[in-house]
Amino acid sequence: MSVQHSFGDKAHILYDRDGHQCIQFSDLVVGEGIQSNQFLIIDENSAALIDPGGDLTFTPLTIELGKRVKISELQYIFASHQDPDIIASLPRWLMHTSCQVVTSKLWSRFLPHLASTFVTQQYGQALEKRIISLGDSGGAIQFGRSKIIALPAHFLHSVGNFHFYDPVSKILFSGDMGASLVEDHAEKAVVDFQAHIPHMRGFHQRYMANNKACRLWANMIRGLDVEMMVPQHGSPFVGKAMITQFLDWISGLECGIDLMDQDSFSLRVKDVMPI
Length: 275
Prior knowledge:
Elements: E1 5-7, E2 11-17, E3 20-26, E4 37-43, E5 46-50, H1 55-66, E6 76-78, H2 84-87, H3 90-96, E7 100-104, H4 105-108, H5 117-123, H6 126-129, E8 131-134, E9 139-143, E10 146-152, E11 162-166, E12 171-173, H7 193-207, H8 211-222, E13 228-230, E14 237-238, H9 240-251
Parallel strand pairs: 5-6, 6-7, 7-8, 12-13
Antiparallel strand pairs: 1-2, 2-3, 3-4, 4-5, 9-10, 10-11, 11-12, 13-14
Helix pairs in contact: 8-9
């Protein structure tokens, strides 16, 4: 695994070898919206974005991308799920690039709702042809000299959810799994796992469906050769030992419906919301 290092103020090289690069962009937007990471994979003349974000991210991200690739030649956008911080900028990418969008079949039919009237009129039925719908089992998408593998991660936290694995760099782009709430410096790798847990626990307890889904996912990841795990929010996990610590932790975490009881579904008609 190549050493992680900064490249300018906003870009952080995760992998750079033999014409293959993985680049993380963090903190492109300051002050508005939750912190998020965007990812660019380059293989010779092919380029793909993972979870490009919403309108707040689009302009600063295109500026950063323009330093490295021709925006008009972007081949793919991979969307782990449908949330605004993942793919709300879709209409602008459709207008300014010829890329195809790869996402779950559960959300592919909803994505056109994000498109403006102009984009819908401009592309019509051709818009649907630019969206690649993934079946629940995922699969491999040809990319450059290799491929990007879509791994099922349903109910973690979306009902139709995928993580993306790059077998060249051995990086797992894990969406909201492994996410942490940090103020800044999301490019810095986790160095003390136990100290990092408080930044993750509340998020995972709320956004992951249940422990069963977490355990099944972790079992799948243990079978992969992963040297870096990079979530969409917060800090990456670098090295097999650190990743194993995370897999052990998430495998034992009660979350989502595990934590619910009848009180979670009680009627409180006397509770008045403040105006």
